[in-house]
Specification:
TIM Barrel; about 350 residues; 4-stranded antiparallel sheet; about 40% helix; 8-stranded parallel beta barrel; 12 helices; 2 domains; 12 strands; alpha/beta; single chain
């Protein structure tokens, strides 16, 4: 039997959204501040490619009422947050070679000071990583990764910060949670090592499952998909089922489509346009677009630190599509952009 997915579109905010929802002409998206008034039906053809058809809301109400209910339902609290507002996850790279800020905060004291700065600027979560996963990045040993991140996690957790550890290694996950991390953020969706999903499940931490095709060293060589949105929907469905077998409920999980990880620009743009379809899983959604290379390619080839404006535009596009966690380098700018975005809706 062919699975049908519904992609919300035609978004409204503020008073127009409230009026449309009250009149039965729109649905709230994931319990957030945006409502949708139209949809696209998406399903897989016999050859594996995706087929799309515009779907009027009235027709969707008649044919797919359960789909609409899942898309409009608010996710349950995640990582101690009620998700009634977007969360800012500030990036702290304790690395010498990350694509955007490698070496800026590579020592413990510098990373801790930077984390404190991000908290003061409005970050809700600090995402601390000790291994660069940019395209072509070299691996570091697990021992070195632990040495880099655990002192920073411990110091910032002691100050009350909500800490996420950005790692794909089971031993690092375990050490980071022991040091005070409350979230495990894995670019391999807990598939990078055989023990990763068991370590994450047993840790009790919240989890971010990110999609990546291939490995960091080779992921941008020639990524291909039958249909990028459908392929990710199938991937996340499989990962969620596997983790549920290990006793991990969906409310512990956030999904991240992995913009720029094993994806060409048309894949990235398609996923950005269709992000709202992933609310059908009932999980919080995380989006990382900050300073990514597609921004430079679509603009004037600016270096990473000059992609702030593009990062903000892409991030706000994600918020319009209901994402709950925005992972960013530029926390003060993002905080300001979100504040104005909300004020305009009110």
């Amino acid at each position: 039997m062919t699975s049908i997915h519904l992609i919300p579109s035609s978004f409204l905010r503020g008073e127009p959204a409230e009026q449309a929802v009250s009149a039965g002409l729109a649905y709230w998206l994931a319990g957030g501040p945006c409502a949708f008034t139209a949809l696209t039906a998406l399903w897989r053809s016999a050859d594996g490619s995706g087929l799309r058809k515009a779907l009027a809301l009235a027709e969707a109400q008649r044919l797919y009422p359960e789909h609409l209910q899942r898309l409009s339902a608010a996710p349950r609290p995640w990582a101690g947050f009620d998700l009634k507002r977007p969360l800012i996850m500030g990036i702290v790279n304790v690395t010498p070679d990350s694509f955007s800020d490698g070496g800026d905060h590579a020592d413990t004291e510098g990373a801790v000071r930077f984390g404190e700065t991000l908290l003061a600027a409005g970050a809700d979560i600090l995402d601390i990583g000790g291994e660069s996963t940019r395209p072509g990045a070299a691996e570091v040993s697990v021992e070195e990764e632990i040495r880099r991140v655990t002192p920073v996690i411990r110091r910032l957790a002691e100050k009350g910060a909500v800490i996420s550890v950005d790692t794909r290694h089971a031993a690092v996950m375990t050490a980071a949670v022991a040091a005070g991390a409350r979230i495990i953020n894995d670019i391999t969706a807990l598939t990078g090592e055989a023990d990763s999903q068991h370590a994450a499940a047993q840790s009790g931490a919240e989890i971010v499952l990110m999609h990546m095709q291939g490995e960091p060293q080779t992921m941008q060589k020639d990524p291909h998909y039958a249909d990028v949105t459908l392929d990710l929907l199938d991937y996340f469905a499989e990962r969620l089922t596997e983790l549920e077998k290990l006793g991990v409920p969906r409310q512990r999980i956030s999904l991240d489509p992995g913009i720029g990880f094993g994806k060409k620009d048309p894949h990235n743009m398609r996923l950005m346009q269709e992000l709202a379809v992933f609310h059908g899983f009932g999980c919080a959604l995380t989006l990382g677009v900050s300073r990514k290379s597609f921004i430079g390619r679509l603009s004037r080839q600016e270096p990473p630190k000059e992609r702030v404006a593009g990062s903000l535009v892409a991030g706000l596009a994600g918020l319009e599509r209901g994402i709950q966690v925005l992972r960013v380098h530029d926390v003060p700018e993002t905080y300001q952009a979100i504040a104005i975005w909300h004020a305009l809706a009110r």
